[in-house]
Amino acid sequence: MAERVFSHPRYALVIVAALVLCAFERYWFVIAPLTLFFTAELLLRAWLQKEKRWSDRNEILFLILDGLATIGLYFLLLLPPGPYNHSMYLRLIRLLRGMYMLRMLRVFSFLTFETFVYSLPMALLALSLCFVALSVEAVTLLIAFALLVELGTRVIAIYKVLPDGGRKNGEYAFAFIDFISTFALFGFIDSVPQAVVLIRVLRILVMLNPLGSLMLAVRKVAQMHEVRKESGMLISMLILLLILSGSLIYFVYPIMDITKTGVVDEGEYTVIQVILFAFTWLIDPGSTPSQAYTPGLTVLTVLVAMTGVFFFALLVGLGTNVMAGLLRELSNSPLSSRVQLLFSGDNEKAEAILRVFADMCKRMQRSYYSAWIFFDQKDRVVSGFGSWLVPRQAKEGSRNVLSQFKLSGIREVIFFHRKYTDAESIVDHHALVQEAKLNDLNVGVSLFSESGLNDNLNDIYTSTLGATPYNSSSITARMLYQMHHCAYMPELGIEMLDTVDGETGMFTVSWSAQIQPSANGASIYIGKSESMLVDWATILFELGLNVIAVRNKEGTFRLLSDMVRAKSKFEVTDVVALGRDPSLWTGMMDSALNKPQPLIREKVIRTFEWAESWDLNMLFIGWHEGLPAMVEEMAEKHHKLTINVLNPSSEENLIFQQDRLDTVLQSVREKTDCDLKVGMTPWDGLNISKAIELLKGCKVIMLYPIEANDDAEDSLLEMWYHSLARLLSERKQQVKWWTPPKIMILPRDRANSESFVRSSENYPLLKIDVASPDAFHDVYMARRILSYARRGSDSRNFEQEIKTFEFINLLLGDAVLVESENSEKLLEYQDASWQEVYREGLRRGWVPLAYGLEPSCYHHKDFYRLIDQWFPIERIAAGAQLHLLAGTLIDEFEMPASTSMTLFCRRGILLKEAQVEAQVEEQVEEQVEEQVEEQVEEQVEEQVEEQVEEQVEEQVEEQVEEQNRELATQVLEGEVMQEIWPKEADPRLLRVLTRQVEGALNLLNESTENGLMKISEVLEKEAGTEVEGDIMDALTELQNIDRVMQRLNNVRSVLDEWSQATKDQGNGDATWKETVEKRYVMEEERLVLRDEL
After folding, report:
1. Domain total for the chain?
2. Residue 417 contacts by C-beta under 8 Å, 6 or more apart in sequence?
3. Which tens digit of pLDDT belongs to each residue from 538-556?
4. Distance of CA 645 to the CA centre of its chain
5. Residue 414 or residue 418, greater confidence
6. What element of type H or E holds 963?
7. What CATH number corresponds to the domain at position 637?
8. Confidence class for position 1063, pLDDT limits 50, 70, 90
9. What is the mean pLDDT of residues 587-612?
């Protein structure tokens, strides 16, 4: 809590206000509270540094300065004026704290480290203060301290911002000169005048690089052919007009007052005066003397004036062209070494990703100056990013682009790619990377592809350019896949990743420990310190640190809930957790080992099982680029999957998208046993009643808008949503027994989620979930860019970020599952605390992650809520109020009974089946062989050979069975193993049984659907209240049909896998044929038997 308050921008205002009050040093009742306030703050900051193990050197320096300033306040308060009369100097040291924290103020957001190094206005402000100090003697001392503060901050900024090289050394030299000159204001040496401080102007003269860019642009514009041609024409015309008008003045017009002195004299008719008057006459007809308007010369005078106006118009046109050329060249002028990130290419996701990245940097109070180079000739406007991102245009095939734009300080290159097969700017990207290598720029290369790459492009980017590829459609597809299981996954992922230093999110820290199994559960050890794993994790949870998983040096992650019942030792090297300020975690985890755990109630969670869905029928309205990949992911888990797509795309896109779905369908049939059916229906985007035809058996409806050129996707989505929701609500009211499918709304812009959530209250009969997988994708990629941007300055943090993303990828797959459960149905006791829920969940194999509130339920008020109002954490989350169970003391959160739902993390499928079989067989063989050899050697000397063989065989069988059971329990809990199938079964009989069960399922499904439709028709005829009640009771009983079908599906899948695991026993007559034929009396059953035999 203290760290949150101290790092908040509003607290900086409190510090500034306190500093202002320090000026009233004559009033003890003002100084006394301020002294106590600063003392408490100093002690709290020292305690925080102790928890961080004194790792922040800058903060330690500020603590020392704060201590000196606080001592000065005590002197002022307790001792009379005299020798300590100058304690004001000590109190002024606290300005360092104020200036340091002013960086976090939104009103002064320009005061970043880059501002002190690169900003010309900042340098001019410092020079202006020098002039004020020389003019006003009363404020000279204060300004001298302020200049020292600016100088110290600039030195720190130079160290943090500039790469090693000439620019950095030059800035250090200017800083040293400014430091020496600033001391002249203190008047320590009388022989040194105070005006020496103006030597700061030297740095400003060097910083006037924009003048150099302007001169370069003028030179390039002057070299343009059209400008040269127009300029030559106008110069020739001007000379001709001057000759003609001068001749008229000499030989046609009478003597005039051409000098405007009021004296008409021939002596004024010098060549220079005539040329000057002729030029003025041409461009300013109003300057014509009255003598030129005699009756005989009026027409000639008007012609001269019109000629001058025409010439002036041509001159303005040339000036317009020149200015346009200058602006164009200036917008594409060279940059400087402060550019650290280089973007190139474009796709649909690029701007959204960079906007999220900019928001993260803004919250960090850090700017990573970047350039975005385009090699195509499209007219585009890149706006809304601020000064940190500068677009530049280069010609296709350009060479030496980095030299052209003077990009000598780049650290990371990130390419954006749009289409799957198009090479786009790959030649130009290749040239960029090769030029960086020739210039010895050690840059990292990444590729953000919108829809993936084919094999040829992927080989060039990864092998030749050394790029790390990221597939946007794959990330969104995996999130879509997780959404059908848990609708809150996108929001949860955003809360975990959209975080910077000082905010709550997911981080990974290095921490060494050892987890060992014990009789009462696993224990965790560090040296001589020991604690039960559940107790240790619960203590950390109470402190706001939610440990999710641990990792060993081989890179294997294990959920903390799985380690509670660990059967073997596990060496911990890293910890993945939710919380704030990871620098504090190491001390917290160490101290938690020695703390006793208070008594907590058990069994506060009801006994239930997570629902498993093996069959799914889904309707997708719209189109998402990740839909084919999502279908392929879902097919690996489901036995039966039906996907209907209502697609409003153009005819050309429909053909391409249908081909992608057909490819996925073929791939699924080759690799899995899933009964997959995919259908696409063209749609006009207006008649939503067409969806009624596809509702039979539908359980989920997803709505995602197609791409629109005017950024109206979410408005289109809103129209579809309300039309569909109104249609389903009306049908539900008419057919009361019918269960409408769940609606999942997928807006493109996360900011629009809140309006969709609020509008869902208008449809109480429907289950509506709102989440944005695109928003999660943008945050995922932006956090990637941020980690790459910080790689050069903080390589250790970059390594931990990689581990965090490895765990996030597990969350996006089947290795780790996130479940959402209604809190009311979850709790056994309504007064249960989060500590009790966490501890009980951990014992059952779940880790609580977050909770949600209804939008209208956030009314609880207490001390923590007041702190949250006074020093709020900036959140951009929209929609459901999802709160991570971490980041602060657990008492700050709502009670579990007041929440609407709770999110848990549990283990999914850890390993693929082939990997599992290989590991089990290898481990069993190795262990059995070792034990058998040892026992054989011991028994050979004592027993007869025959007895030895019999005993060995019995022991081998027992050990194999025992090892299989242990390994299956340790590694494969919830996983299907082929070792559990008996080998002696006849596969033909199993296939017969499989097909019989499948036929029974089809008959049951068809008859159930037909029967329900007939009953619904009876209900629509309004047969009467009594009959309607009886029918509703019957329908309630018929709900067990779903459970019967689920069981039959499980039996069918077991028989099918069993038949595949056994060996074929030949083609001879089966001994059981006659027995089975006696049981199978229906012709359909006998046909199955004949087909298999």
Report:
1. 6
2. 345, 347, 424, 447, 448, 449, 450, 453, 457
3. 999 988 899 999 999 998 9
4. 29
5. 414
6. helix 945-971
7. 3.40.50
8. low
9. 78
Amino acid at 177: I
Q: Which residue has the tokens 């979930």?
A: 769
Point out which residues pair with 907 in neighbouring strands: 816
**Lowest mean pLDDT across 571-575, 578-582, 952-956:** 952-956
Last residue of a domain, one of 213, 238, 261: 213
CA-wise closest residue to 483 among 748, 772, 755 = 772
1081 inside domain: no
pLDDT in tens, 685-719: 888 888 888 888 888 899 988 876 666 788 888 89
Kindly state the tokens that stand for 308: 């001058």
Tell me the HSE value of 446 on the side-chain side, using a 13 A CA sphere: 20
Question: Which one is predicted more confidently, 207 or 362?
Answer: 362
Q: Decide which of 92, 110, 128 is a domain's last residue.
A: 110
Residue type, 589: M
CA distance 39 to 48: 14
Q: Write the DSSP string, 675-740.
A: EEEEEEEE--SS-GGGGGGG-TT--EEEEEPPP-TTS-HHHHHHHHHHHHHHHHHHHHHHSTT--P
DSSP-assigned states of every residue in 590-605: HHHTTSPPPP--S--B
Is-contact 975 916, C-beta < 8 A?
Answer: yes
Q: Are residues 57 and 149 in the same domain?
A: no
Pick from 778, 861, 224: which is nearest to 476 by CA?
A: 778
CA distances in angstroms from 1032 to 14, 629, 1028, 1029, 1036, listed in the order given? 66, 41, 6, 5, 6
- Alpha-carbon distance of 55 to 49, in angstroms, equals 7
CA dist 990 and 1092 (Å) reads 10
Report which of residues 775 and 1047 the model is more confident about: 775
Rounded to the nearest 5 degrees, what angle is found at the Cα of 423, between the Cα atoms of 419 and 424?
Answer: 75
Which has more confidence, 629 or 17?
629
What is the share, in percent, of the chain residues with pLDDT greater than 70? 72
Tokens 């797959």 locate to: 813
b/e code 502-541 from CB counts within 10 Å (16+ = b): bbbbbbbbbbebebebeeebbbbebeeeebbbbbbbbbbb
- E strands, 499-540, are 505-516, 523-526, 529-532
Retrieve residue 725's tokens: 């929701």
Domain that holds residue 672: 615-698+700-740
SS (H, E, C) 808-841: HHHHHCCCEEEEEEEHHHHECCCCCCHHHHHHHH
980 belongs to a structural domain: no
Residue 1030 lies in a domain: no
pLDDT: which is higher, 26 or 800: 800
Check whether 507 has a pLDDT greater than 90.
yes
Q: Are residues 185 and 232 in the same domain?
A: no
* Helix ranges (DSSP H) in 408-454: 426-438
Q: What is the CA radius of gyration of the chain?
A: 39
Q: Are residues 276 and 192 in the same domain?
A: no
Read off the pLDDT of residues 276-300 as tens digits, 9 standing for 90 and up.
888 887 777 767 777 777 777 778 8
Q: What is the mean pLDDT of the chain?
A: 76
Same domain, 302 and 371: no
- List pLDDT tens digits, range 802-841: 999 999 988 887 777 788 887 777 888 888 888 888 888 8
Is residue 944 domain-resident? no
Does residue 305 sit in the same domain as residue 346?
A: no
Burial level of 381, CB count in 10 A (0-12/13-18/19+)? exposed
Tokens at 1087, concatenated: 């046909």
Mean pLDDT in residue range 188-214: 73
Picking from 1063, 611, 538, 1054, the residue whose alpha carbon sits closest to that of residue 837 is 538
* 803 and 895 fall within a common domain: yes
> Do 139 and 245 share a structural domain?
no
Q: Are residues 120 and 195 in the same domain?
A: yes
First to last CA, the chain: 74
Dihedral sign for Cα atoms in the order 314, 318, 321, 323: negative
